[in-house]
Amino acid sequence: MSCVAQPLWAVEQSNKVIEVGEERKARIMSSLRSARSDLKYGDIVASPIPDISMVQVENGPLLYIYNDGEFFFDGDLYQVGKGRFINLKEQALTAVRKDLLATIPLDEMIIFSPKAAVKGVINVFTDVDCGYCRKLHKEVPELNAMGIEVRYLAFPRAGVGSASYQKIASAWCAENPRQALTALKNSKGIEQNVCADNPVAKQYNLGQQMGVNGTPAIVLADGSLIPGYRPAAGLARVLGIKGG
């Protein structure tokens, strides 16, 4: 199954998605491939801006491309609303993240669960060499005590194959992944064991598709993203859990 994150928010008018004509799609795709045939492109859909379409680059940015296929830009796209600016790209990624999260088997995550009933869940993209990831990990017992389950996904910021990758993959491959991950976050060494079937590269790629560009990156069940460190009490408040 392809993990290309498709934009899920093509322009809607009267609850109908505006399709991009096949001729226009072909023209845009031909233009993109003539410039960078090494990249993989998702489906081409309409954007909220007239005469501009959107296409997701696999493991890359969401492009806003003019319908002649000659010019494009990337980055955040805002709509001017009543009393606020609406980040349409973040709106899109929220839906994408929720769908992508559903494709990740729980047994491929390293999960720290509360002893009592689970009141909320956070999905955390983490790097063992990240200071704020270590700070957040020290608060896992506090999060668990408030009923918050912490599900870790790997995101070695230096990339797949790096020294950080070797360490975090070894944690995923360890006999006791929770213990190994905790040891690494406490600056302790573990036995290097990068098993062939570890999910680190897959999770790293999924993180990129979700718009993760730093750690920790906390994804909630609805697909919304909290970038960076947030104290346990603050996370509990976001999840609507009393006592946070």
Concise description?
The chain is an alpha+beta fold. It has helices at residues 22-35, 88-101, 131-138, 140-145, 163-173, 177-185, 200-209, 232-238, and strands at residues 12-13, 16-17, 41-46, 52-57, 62-66, 72-73, 78-81, 84-87, 110-112, 120-126, 148-154, 217-219, 225-227. The protein folds into two domains: 12-101, Nuclear Transport Factor 2, Chain: A, CATH 3.10.450.70; 106-238, Glutaredoxin (3-Layer(aba) Sandwich).
Describe the 3D structure.
- This protein is α+β, with helices and mostly antiparallel strands and 244 residues long.
- It folds into 2 domains: 12-101, Disulphide bond isomerase, DsbC/G, N-terminal (Nuclear Transport Factor 2, Chain: A, Roll), CATH 3.10.450.70; 106-238, Glutaredoxin.
- It has helices at 22-35, 88-101, 131-138, 140-145, 163-173, 177-185, 200-209, 232-238; strands at residues 12-13, 16-17, 41-46, 52-57, 62-66, 72-73, 78-81, 84-87, 110-112, 120-126, 148-154, 217-219, 225-227.
- The strands form 4 sheets. Strands 9-11-10-12-13 form a 5-stranded mixed sheet. The chain has a 4-stranded antiparallel sheet with strand order 3-4-5-6, covered by helices on one side. Strands 1-2 form a two-stranded antiparallel ribbon.
- Strand 1 (12-13) and strand 2 form a beta hairpin.
- Helix 5 (163-173) runs antiparallel to helix 6 (177-185).
- The longest helix has 14 residues, at 22-35.
- It is globular.
- It starts with 11 loop residues before the first strand and ends in a 6-residue tail after the last helix.
